[in-house]
């Protein structure tokens, strides 16, 4: 099941020698006995189980073009990964229009690292190379049904469920040890011709982070890279909890963030809170934005705009940590290719205003 961004979404594309064509799936694992937590989470988020592996304990959850795999196979790479990291994202897949055997050969020639774990331990029998934190980066063919050989439809399941309106994976953010950002940006650039499209340095009251957003030539596969030199930063807290580098969050696109978030809240998904003071200055930050501010405030949805015109909007919200230290982002783009950079500073300032009101500052 493949889904493309809506026609109104603006993306920047460039030379695409590998034929990259979107994310296909993210694979998750959990220590023995904890996989039910993953199944329950994905159902709360509006996903439906649509496929089961024919011989192994792997389930494909789907919502339009977003595929999430739960791998419970005890004799697998996923099980070994979960033993080290706890509940985790043990792999992700990128689609290619070129034959994946050719892609694999080119990737390895460009410096990609092969995965040495036994081949039959992967969730899909396609080429793989090492991804962030030694997870599996699957190279999946765009043409045909990549799941057909190894997976069977679940009886009675809708093969293309609409769920709560998530349509495709917008980006996967990586958390890195301090000093490794250049290594990983070079890795994606050499392997797939990724390019840096954003760089920002966020400073809060006590900690901060640096983020470099890399994007693939198709303009859809985006991988922001985060690092921090502060041992108490949120990045290093993740690294400690996860026992290494990895996927920090999975951002999923929706055409109607209000309806998606309201449905998820009703199902029990927990989101990060946002101070009321944030919404008091939305009209000052972004004049004539046209959004329903009371509804934004009720749902704690953040809004950002490009600095040049203030017309290209982005709406976003983050779940609380959902899989170990990993969380999800729900995002709607209205012509904005960024990552909500403006919200970092706005949130910081709104929290300070709240502190002033309460007499803390």
Automatic annotation (TrEMBL):
Keywords: Dioxygenase, Iron, Metal-binding, Oxidoreductase, Pyruvate, Repeat. GO terms for biological process: L-tyrosine catabolic process. Pfam families: Glyoxalase, Glyoxalase_5. The keyword Membrane does not apply. Belongs to the 4HPPD family. One of its GO terms (molecular function) is metal ion binding. This is 4-hydroxyphenylpyruvate dioxygenase. CDD domains: HPPD_C_like, HPPD_N_like. Residues 168-320 form the VOC domain. Its cofactor is Fe cation. The keyword Repeat applies. SUPFAM superfamilies: Glyoxalase/Bleomycin resistance protein/Dihydroxybiphenyl dioxygenase.
């Amino acid at each position: 099941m493949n889904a493309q961004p809506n026609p109104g979404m603006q993306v920047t594309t460039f030379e695409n020698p590998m034929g990259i064509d979107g994310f296909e799936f993210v694979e998750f694992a959990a220590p023995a006995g904890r996989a039910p937590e993953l199944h329950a989470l994905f159902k709360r988020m509006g996903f439906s189980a649509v496929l089961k592996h024919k011989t192994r304990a792997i389930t494909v959850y789907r919502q339009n073009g977003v595929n999430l795999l739960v791998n419970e196979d005890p004799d697998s790479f996923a099980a070994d990964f979960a033993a080290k990291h706890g509940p985790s994202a043990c792999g992700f897949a990128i689609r290619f229009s070129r034959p994946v055997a050719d892609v694999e050969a080119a990737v390895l020639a460009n410096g990609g690292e092969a995965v040495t774990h036994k081949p039959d331990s992967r969730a899909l029998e396609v080429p793989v190379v090492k991804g962030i934190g030694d997870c599996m980066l699957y190279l999946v063919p765009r043409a045909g049904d990549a799941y057909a050989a190894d997976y069977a439809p679940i009886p009675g399941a809708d093969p293309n469920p609409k769920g709560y309106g998530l349509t495709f994976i917008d980006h996967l953010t990586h958390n890195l040890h301090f000093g490794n950002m250049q290594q990983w940006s070079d890795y994606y650039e050499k392997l797939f011709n990724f390019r840096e499209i954003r760089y920002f340095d966020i400073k809060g009251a006590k900690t901060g982070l640096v983020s470099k957003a890399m994007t693939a030539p198709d303009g859809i596969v985006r991988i922001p890279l985060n690092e921090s030199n502060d041992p108490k930063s949120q990045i290093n807290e993740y690294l400690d909890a996860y026992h290494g580098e990895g996927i920090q969050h999975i951002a999923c696109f929706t055409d109607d963030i209000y309806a998606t978030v309201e449905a998820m809240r009703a199902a029990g998904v927990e989101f990060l809170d946002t101070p009321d003071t944030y919404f008091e200055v939305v009209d000052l930050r972004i004049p004539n934005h046209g959004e329903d501010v009371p509804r934004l405030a009720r749902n704690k949805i953040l809004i950002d705009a490009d600095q040049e015109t203030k017309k290209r909007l982005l709406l976003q919200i983050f779940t609380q940590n959902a899989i170990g230290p990993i969380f999800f982002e729900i995002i709607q783009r209205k012509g904005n290719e960024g990552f909500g950079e403006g919200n970092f500073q706005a949130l910081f300032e709104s929290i300070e205003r709240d502190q002033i009101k309460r007499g803390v500052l």
